[in-house]
Amino acid sequence: MTTPETPSSGIVEVIFGKDVTVVQPVNLYGCAIGESSFVAPFVEIQKGVTIGKQCRIQSHAFICDLVTIGDDCFISHGAMFINDLFATGGPAAKPELWRSTKLGNRVSIGTNATILPVKICDRAVIGAGAVVTRDITEPGFYVGNPARLLRRL
Q1: Bigger pLDDT: 93 or 52?
Q2: Distances in Å between the alpha carbon of 33 and those of 46, 62, 86, 91?
Q3: If you average pLDDT over residues 31-53, what whole number do you get?
Q4: Which backbone phi and psi does 97 adopt, to 5 degrees?
Q5: How confident is the model at residue 4 (pLDDT cuts 50, 70, 90)?
Q6: Residue 77 burial class via C-beta count within 10 angstroms: exposed 0-12, middle 13-18, buried 19 and up
Q7: Cβ-based neighbour number of residue 11 at 10 Å
Q8: Per-residue pLDDT band at 9 (split at 50, 70, 90)
Q9: Phi, psi torsion values for 116, nearest 5 degrees
Q10: For 25-45, what is the mean pLDDT?
Q11: Contacts (Cβ under 8 Å, ≥6 apart) of 11
């Protein structure tokens, strides 16, 4: 009888800018994190992700492949980014079916928000629990499921 491998968390092949703080345990692999950014414990950032300068990623956030986050962004506790829209009726069998997400600068994502493959402009605030299903092109506060503009900035 063989023993299953013990799962582990860690930091593998990550490009760090100057003065980045990471509080372990985390899963960070194949990503880039800009200078003066902070990553809290229990965060997963997958390969191909780029995080800008002076960002704060709070605990239990999940940032999947094909996500780009601008500078001065805040990603709150439990925020989830999705790159697979299950277009075939189930999980994509090929990464070519995944879609990208891009956040501008000074974007804040609230606790337990879910971000589907979209573009979010600079200075947008996504409320706690919101589900972003469409591009956000105007600075403002967005709330609900699906997320809608509550008020302009």
Answers
A1: 52
A2: 11, 14, 28, 28
A3: 98
A4: -85, -10
A5: low
A6: middle
A7: 17
A8: low
A9: -80, 175
A10: 98
A11: 22, 24, 26, 28, 29
| HEC profile of 58-118 | CCCCEECCCEEECCCCEECCCCEECCCCCCCCCCCCCHHHCCCEEECCCCEECCCCEECCC
Length of the chain: 153
Residue 11, helix vs strand vs coil: strand
| Mean per-residue pLDDT of the chain | 94
| For residues 57-85, average pLDDT | 97
- Which tokens sit at 147? 């997320």
- The residue with tokens 């606790």 is 111
- 45-54, 85-94, 101-110, 143-152: which has the minimum mean pLDDT? 85-94
Please give the DSSP secondary-structure letter assigned to residue 18.
Answer: T
Bridge pairing between strands 15-16 and 32-33: parallel
Q: Which amino acid is it at 81?
A: F
Segment 32-42 shows an average pLDDT of 98
Total Cβ atoms within 10 A of residue 24? 14
Q: What is the distance between the alpha carbons of residues 142 and 48, in angstroms, rounded to a whole number?
A: 27
